[in-house]
Amino acid sequence: MTLKEAIIANDSSVLIMSEIEEEKKSKPPEKSLRDHPLLIVRIFANIGFYLWIAVMAIGAFFAWLISLLFI
User: Fold this and answer.
1) Cβ pair 3, 14 in contact under 8 A
2) What is the DSSP letter of 71?
3) Which member of 13, 17, 21, 29 has the greatest number of CB atoms within 10 A?
């Protein structure tokens, strides 16, 4: 069923699916701040990225430790 036929038939499910497909096509790919042209932005993005990795690693260690203690 084409979009024109869906509009004539008032089939909302086809209209919704076509709108979702259009939204997926229209979005440009997101770029990371770690690839930003300004050096200061790249520095802060990398610091934030590696701080987040460290926080997640410490949290994973504590989760593992606590789960080990309660076995």
Assistant:
1) yes
2) -
3) 17
